Amino acid sequence: MTLQELTAHVSQQFTKAHGRPPRWIVAAPGRVNLIGEHTDYNDGFVLPMAIEFYTVMAADRPAGDTKQIRLYSTLADKPASIDLTRPVKPFPKGTWSNYPAGVIAGFLARGLKPGGFDATIHSTVPLGGGLSSSAALEVATATLLEVITGKKLDPVEKALLCQKAEHEFAGMPCGIMDQFVSVMGRENHLLLLDCRSRRTELVPLDDPSVAVLIVNTNVKHKLTGSEYPARRKQCELAAKILGVPSLRSANPKALEDAKDRMDEVVYRRARHVVGEIERTVYAAEGIRASNWPTVGQLMYASHYSLRDDYEVSCDELDIVVGVAEGIGVKGGVYGCRMTGGGFGGCAVALVKADAVDAISKKIADDYKTKTGIEATIFVSRPAAGATVIKG
Ligand code: GLA
Could you tell me the pTM of the whole model? Predict the structure, then answer.
């Protein structure tokens, strides 16, 4: 579904529910990270792009009562109501409406009052697939509130407000990558983000001979909830032992020297992060130089480090990467790795554009044979960040 089709669909749903067309429509994309995994909360570099899959929100003032926000998601059983006459509090853990509610609370905390509205939401970002469906929902909400309140936030502040919503309302201590790229993504560009200075640099990815292939394993292992904060803590501990503010300030030599003073697991976690930050910088150089085989090798190295040192991969992701590596550069695959938090979700591959169909078929067939599961495979060009479609 193109953004245009998705917009028409959401607009229609809104009109059906309310008997009039929406006054405001906004969209925010999901993302795929090419390299730089589990580096954002270590002040490192990440290199994601926004994808052509979006969350769209269509909204208007309610007919009568203006102190209620009512959110209808086409993907959820129940609508959510937020009563603006009381402080906005989180819903029970695991409720989808915590993402928009956290963003609304962030606006209110800044004195920006949206007043009541009705909104209809639909998303083509696969839910829970590691492509930041949650960030897309947060950023779409923030974009809608900007239009309603007439106050455009600074993009960095907007991304941080959305991250805070995820921390405080969804209880997920995520880094800043997903929200940044959903806000700041640019067509035909990757976003090289320095998570320490929060400076961004757009790296063109517009060579028509290469394509970014996304392979959804369609599995989600239930570990993410506890494992992610555990990884964060291990990284903080490693930084403390090394006497640095974050692992961004550590180098491989200092880490080797401190090896004996660290638990073996903590050492391996730190080795992943320190190596991954370096790989991300090299990969950005490789992309600028259109050196696809080098970028591909860095992607494999990233995967093995995430699998062995960081231990956030799973059998299904390893199978996809193994099949891709078996196809090799000759068959059109430069590199492949898991992407996002891990324990399921998606793998990302950099491939020759003219081999996309053959590669997709081979991965889908072999994955099905080895796991019994159907993968979902698609290509995306780097997309633009959040937009106001009607406002
Ligand atoms: C999740 C988090 C991000 C980032 C990745 C791992 O997607 O939301 O902040 O930490 O995991 O790179």
Answer: 0.97
